[in-house]
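INTERNAL TRANSFER SHEET
From: sequence group
To: structure group
Subject: Ig-like domain-containing protein

Please process the attached sequence and return the structure record in the designated field. Keep the field labels unchanged so the import script can parse them.
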Amino acid sequence: MKKSILLYIVLATVITIQTPIYGKTIYNLETDSFDNKQKLTKLNDWMRTDYIGNGVTKGRGIPGMWNYAFSQIPVEGKIYVSSKSGSKYIKTVSVNNKIDTAFYNDSESQMLILPPGSSRADQVIEKSDEYALYTPGGEMTNKVTGINTDGSAELTIEATTGGVFLELTRLLDNNDLPENNSLDTNFTFKGVKSALDVSLGLYLNHNTGGGAYSAMPKAYYYTTTDTTVDMSNYIAPNKTSLYLKQDNVNILVGDAWDPSLYFKSATDRDGKSLSYNQLTNINDKVDTSKPGTYQVFYQNGISSEEGSVERILTVTVLPKLTLIVPTSNDFGSYKLGTATPILPWNHNNSIWVENNSNDGWNLTASLSGGTDGLENYVMNSGRLLKDNNLIAHSVSSGKINISDDWSVNKGLYIDYSNAKELRKDKAVLSWSLTPSTKGISE
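Return from structure group:
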C-alpha cells in the first residue's frame, strides 16, 4: 500500500532588531545621509582634525581624545618591554575613555556645528559627551593595529565594553646596554573611531534653547581617521640591569664574607639606580669555616617575570696553608762497608707547600713507630732530624716544591756512616705545617 503525504514548506526570513543597551542610535558622520549634511560635514571635519580644543577642553576630536585616553599611567601599570625582537606582551588596561561635556552651551565658539548668522536660527550642539575608544552600550568599538615611528614595535588596541586590551610585539632588537634600552612610543593607527553623544539645541540671536530637530536626533555620532598616539604612559622599555665587580672570587678559610662587596651597580625597570639593599634577593650560602666552592645568586626583579636579571658569583674558599706529601718514600739500600753510606730523598716524591695567605709558615717533621735506633740515621740538612725538625719555612705566598733542591747533606736523607751491622729500617714520618709568627708584611 502506498500513501502520499502533502508537505507544506514555508520559508520565512527572521529579522532581528538589535537595540543598544542604552537605547542610542549611532551614526557615521561621513557616510550617513541627513537633511543638513553640510552641518554634519563640518562636525566630521572637526572630529577628524581637532586636537587641543583651543585650550577649552581636555581633548577634542579623535586625535585629542585618543591622546587624552592614554595620557595617564594606568592603575594596572605599564607594559615594560625587553630589548629582544619577538617579545610579545598582552595586558588589560584602564583608559580615560570619556570626556564629560566636550561641548557646553556657555562656549559658543566651541559648540556650533556651523556658525549661524546673527539674526537667524540654526542648530547647535548644546551639550555633548565624547567617547574615545568605545561607547557604554557597545555601539562603537575599536580594534586597530599601529606601528611606532621607527618601525621597531607593533601595537594592537582592542576596545570594547569588556575592557581595553593591548598587545605589543617588539619587531627589532635593541642592542644597547639594558640600562640604556629604548623604545619609540609614538604609534600611528589607521581608521580609529571616536564618538559624540549629542544633545541638540536651537541657536537664535546668540542664545541657545532646548529645541531638537528630527533631522539630527539625539544619538551617538562617530567618524574615523588616522592618528598618532603617545603611548609613553602605557609602554616603556625595560631598563632592569645588574652588574657585579667580578664573576669569581677566592677567599681564605676564616675570612669575613660580605656579598655586598662584589656588587657593582643596578637599575630598576625605569632606569633608576638601585643600591645593594634594594635588590630583590640575594641567595648566599658561603661557609668560610671550611674549604669549598659556592655560588652566590644576586637577583634584580621578580624571577618569574620577563626582564628580571640574575648574576652568579662563584666563591672559592681556600685553605690558608696546604701541604702535599707522598704516602711513602723509599730511600733505597746501602751495602755496608762501601763508600756511599748516604741515601738521599727520592726526587720523584715531591713535597709541596701552598700558601694562600699573607702569613709565613713552618714545616716540621718527626719519626714515630720506627725500627729501633733509626732516629740515629735520619738526617735533616746535616743534623739529626730529632735535633733539627724544621724542614722548611717561608714568608712567601704561592706554591713551593720543598724537596726540589734536596741532595746529599741537604734536606731529609739517611746517613749510615756509623752503621756497624745490617739493618732493615721502616718508620712513619709525620709532618706539621703551621703559620709562623712572621708575616709577609713584616
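Handover comment: Residues 241-318 form a domain with the Immunoglobulin-like fold (CATH 2.60.40.10). The chain has three domains: 26-237, 241-318, 321-439.
Transfer complete.
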